[in-house]
Amino acid sequence: MVHLKDLESSLLSKASDKELMLYRFLKGQKHTVKVKDNDLQTSVCVKAFMEGQGENDLRNLRKIKPFKGLHYTNNLELLVAASLIEAGSEEENIEKYLLKRTSKECFIINSALTKNFRVLTSPNSEIEKLANKLMLNERIELQDIQCCINEVSDLYEYYILEKGITKFNLDFSFENKQQEYETFYSFGIKAIKRIETFFLVGFYLALFFVCIKIAPGIAQQIMSNWDTLEPLAYMMDKVVIFLLASTGFLLTNNIAKIKSVVRSIIRTLVFKLLGINVKQYEDIVERIKTR
Questions:
Q1: What is the mean pLDDT of the chain?
Q2: Of 176, 207, 240, which residue sits at a domain end?
Q3: Which of 119, 152, 176 is the last residue of a domain?
């Protein structure tokens, strides 16, 4: 595999000053150039990519009539430079320029101007395919990188390759972290469910012991006052039989709902004890389930 830094050094030595200025600008750097007299094109690029201002030079550049198809609107570096000097002034020219260009040039323009232009032509080369994926924010595979390395022939293609490698590493790192988060999430779910079960069992045991404690006292009171309570007991017996007969079927069908309500109450108490927002927790669980 070609060493990337050696490849970059080789491409830097072959590039023109205008290409070097735009390439350095894309990377947040500067390329020092000595502007020759009457070299209006280089002057515009220097002003746009390094010094700022440049309206006068751009005005003079626009006055130059096309010669044998040569014009600043047909030159990538000059078109980007003009757009930087006067923001938004070259959008129509850029759209015309991209009609005959590929996703390679489109990606460079978008990166330099922080725009979202599109091209109609389908990508043919591996570099163009990689640039298209980057613009669409699609997943970058290792194969995409490997196919491009031997195809790089200029600094802009190298820049696209470098951006592809960066996104590939970020995607790979995110996937590893995502797996860790999902593992951590599963541990958290298990812990919460066990705490819920603990409190639920504790609730039923407490209810059972309360009944045991209360039942003897109630029975003793009934026995000691049986003569007075006998008519009431008779009536209550009939009422209970009626209620069981009329609602027993409904009660049987709603056992699951009753258990769900009890579990929901226990869960709310557990979450409050742990300081967890129930709504946020449920939203997170739903997002993970539907992902």
A1: 79
A2: 176
A3: 176
